[in-house]
Write a structure and sequence with these properties.
homohexamer, about 230 residues, alpha/beta, eight-stranded mixed β-sheet, two-stranded antiparallel sheet, 7 helices, 10 strands, about 35% helix
Chain lengths: ~230, ~230, ~230, ~230, ~230, ~230
């Protein structure tokens, strides 16, 4: 993907992205569950590298399965630099899909962030690994306690959203949003413009302007904004 | 699969199957959600033919998608006679994955039953189609209202269980159970023997025998059962 | 509302209605919760007469409140003949909003049906009252055990849908659907046409026709349907 | 307990009981979860015999535990005739606490009914046992799949209510209600009187009388009821 | 309302308020859901200004609706200084009812705090606005993604409590509590007295006094407290 | 219990403990719900002292009950130094089982920590008490608002786990884990060894070693680890 588009998206809040997608009829783009482990104000953007789990079955989800060709370890070694690894853990709250070691390896490979509707394990170790993570919480048990890993780069569900490989994922303190690959340029350009407009509205509110007629704008407000916008180049 | 084994399994309750699997350390084999649309006393056994949905995304889950090569329609035409179609609908309660027409086509193709942790639509029409269905309820909206179909014969989750293609599915009034393909013969033979034992215990209870020492049996009860068992050939 | 439109809608399944509304971009029209107390194959259509509850507060939700001018009793006496009374009970499962006496009075006034995302009380008495009810279950305690009644003919939520007075409500064995007042004619006419089409598809499936190319139809199927359709007048 | 009081309570609906207890400030007396396996119009009354489960732990909840002195089997042999066995299964939906054999033994011992916020297993076998059961559903797996039995005749929670041994349990098609032992006589006598009053109200509604002034009654309605009541002896 | 009463309430914890209301039979006064966005030790008190949402319906909940006379914007312009804006968002976790701009406008108007059982959007921007907020979390999408705004200063539900306009709302790190308007003076005066008593108990515990006889107090403890209390004026 | 074993366990993460128990077939050992009130990196180990609540019943769960011989106060006075008090609050989110005073008394008695699947009240006061607490959140109302205390040192459920008096409880930033008393030595010794191994793996990953073959180790990795291990004594 065009890295210039990624650069623009880094300046657009996930809140604005969802409004842009709503204009295209897409309401299911924000994931219920993933939150930054520690809110930091950071925003990260990258193509989705998907991981898929199904529920545990005691004959297949065992520590031994970690050596299997279809394992989370093998998946991690396939991740290109700059991707956002995104895992469908079906929202299971009691099986930490990754801990410090796997997060450290992802960091080493240049993975931009890890996102899941499930949980991670070893909170302290993950913070040490320095991999940015968005998850639904922390649990001590390993993935095999509740989940069976079945593959990567397939379509997945995550937090109530459909995610396809190479969709663009954006994460910030409000959580995680998916932008369909075909709408990325639209979202970047319209989103950036919308951010500019909202920054102007915010400054007007700070001056004491009332909301009706300002947000959404009436003709007068549109004109005032256009004048201000012109000065911004 | 050996049809003789299927024939034996038809006589073993899902309750007994779960006890046999527990002896092998498998606790996650009964699916939370699927129930017979109308309890009928019927038991159906067959290999799993899996269907997979992810959440809706408004740009891909549309009525138009029903003509796509990866569609529920295409999946149905791939189903061999005698299978149990089992759909991972992520427990979504508000999108009916199939209605009367698709059920009628499955019936026509010889599908033994349809099982899902989601819901179906058009209750009356489905009863008319005569396809036996185990589901988590009924909702009027179509699948695309809440789900995107993504493929068939992949590993899936259903009602909290992992299901792999060709696992054996057994359904009766207690719901739906999966038997890992490798444990089918064990479950059939041990299960049938266990059914016989429990029928004898039930008759003892009817005669007024107390539970302690009978169920589980002490040495005396074991001997009495062995004698009775011998008379059964 | 035009009673001819109501007559048409009575022949259109709630499943079909949701598909018609999806074509207009409306996905939130089927209510999660309301189900027929006993499935009967019946379909009922009428304008919404809304009732609104908030949670219980022990100083205001008391048996004494039943004599208050803003009470469920007063609301019932305002219901015109033919309406469907629809109550926002916030899905509370432990407070039966109405019992046999109030249902009997609604029946007497010609109320067509009662719909709620909450529960009713006195199952036997309600069946005796003969008022058709769609609800999320049964609980013994009275409304004041969990709810405070606050008014009628206001906008409400019910089972995850927004309902405005005079929207059209349709209920059948698949549950309850709301049609925005402005879309009623569209839903009736398109819906009736769609039912006809689906009945033809069903008969084709019964003859053994495959789904791809039939449903949705390709050019050939469209032509065959058009020919059949012509014979129906 | 006085069997005359039990006889009166058999004629009072659980709906009325909850209203009587509300007058004493008790709102938590109806259990969320227990429902008749098949609604039959039947009402059963008896003292509580409590059973208590905690979650499964794989080292203690095993088929072997069924021979332990603290087992469901031992508990059943302690149940006096006429009790209602009531089990705290913490609402676990995936472990059937009892099946056909244990239900048959309870029936044999004269247990009046079995009530639980959990589920049972072997639906067909339980119907054969003829023990009346109120539960939250059916699941194939045995109790040890999700629960550990820890004792009987202790205070328990069931469906959100506190139950103490020898409280009175009343079950009918609306579910299960607990009456604190100290309030049993009150609930019986006030309840029976209230039933009489409501039957008169129902007949008035059938005649076309409006609700305001009737239910709750104004002075005129009170007088008319008093006159009618006198004729009933 | 008497500002002296407000001043007293600012020194009473929400924990103590709930105990005072329990003595009046009110158990439903603490809201499930609203929490400080960042715990700060702050306590805020003010009269409720209610806002009401129902679920989204795609034909009415649109960005265009923000210019409608019944809009969140119009409601904000009606808020008097010092109120606590409290929004019934039905606990919807995926639609941020307000973002930075609307919060900034509320701050400008002198709104004391915003409370909701729903979520907000744009975490960073809200912190910048400096409006104190109590909510159930953060989500990127706008209100119209999941909610339809229908009015203000009506009775609402919030976090399982009934809230009427002009009830008093108190928020601190334990969450949000409603005091019925009629009980405000009682809660303030009894509450302040209770705080004093508990501070004495805490100091006794610090000295090593055992709990039984101290909390609740026996005659001796009552006397010791009375003596201490006298010294406080 | 051997204090040397406790000392070893203090150095083993709860994540590692769950993996050791999984090898013994125990998957239900991590509690869903309890989290540190403020994550601090601290790990605490001690024998369980259990507390048990059932749901509220308004006739028995009253402020007056706090003087009853079976009260939380009496239970606290029975707690030996060094125990971890662990309360089965059935996950009730709206009744704070303890506040500042009771926590201060537990601290005074040398209780090592308080763990519950319920919530506490008076967040600020609890932090002042300095008792380490693991809970599912904070709510203003007292225990009697939603719970009835019924006893101590009985088997309980907590966060989906069975806990028996004298089991070992371990808490850290990942939450709370129970070790069956019979497995404590095993868990300590195997766990400490496993920690050592994982620290070596982490250092290997930091050097850029790939996961497959390292974690789980192949023969080569095993040999390299054995060599490194020897140097550690």
């Amino acid at each position: 993907m065009d890295s210039a588009v990624i650069d623009i998206l880094r300046k657009v809040t996930t809140a604005t992205i969802t409004t842009m997608l709503l204009k295209k009829g897409i309401r299911r783009c924000w994931m219920q569950g993933p939150k930054p482990l520690v809110p930091s104000g950071q925003r990260i953007v990258g193509p989705a590298f998907t991981l898929r789990f199904v529920p545990v079955r005691e004959d297949v989800a065992t520590p031994a399965s970690w050596s299997h060709p279809i394992s989370t370890r093998a998946a991690i070694e396939e991740m290109p630099e700059g991707v956002i690894a995104i895992a469908d853990a079906m929202g299971v709250p009691s099986a930490g899909i990754f801990g410090d070691i796997l997060c450290a390896r992802m960091k080493k490979r240049g993975v931009a962030a890890l996102v899941t509707d499930g949980v991670l394990r070893d909170r302290g170790g993950i913070l040490t690994s320095a991999l940015p993570v968005w998850c639904a919480g922390i649990a001590a048990p390993a993935s095999v306690n509740g989940l069976t890993f079945v593959g990567w780069q397939q379509p997945i569900g995550c937090g109530g959203c459909a995610i396809f490989p190479d969709d663009i994922i954006i994460v910030d303190d409000d959580g995680a949003v998916v932008v369909p690959a075909t709408l990325t340029e639209y979202a970047a350009h319209e989103g950036a413009e919308h951010e500019l407009y909202e920054s102007w509205v915010f400054s007007e509110v700070e001056k004491g302007v009332k909301l009706p007629g300002l947000y959404p704008p009436n003709e007068d407000a549109k004109a005032r904004y256009a004048a201000w916008r012109k000065t911004r180049g």
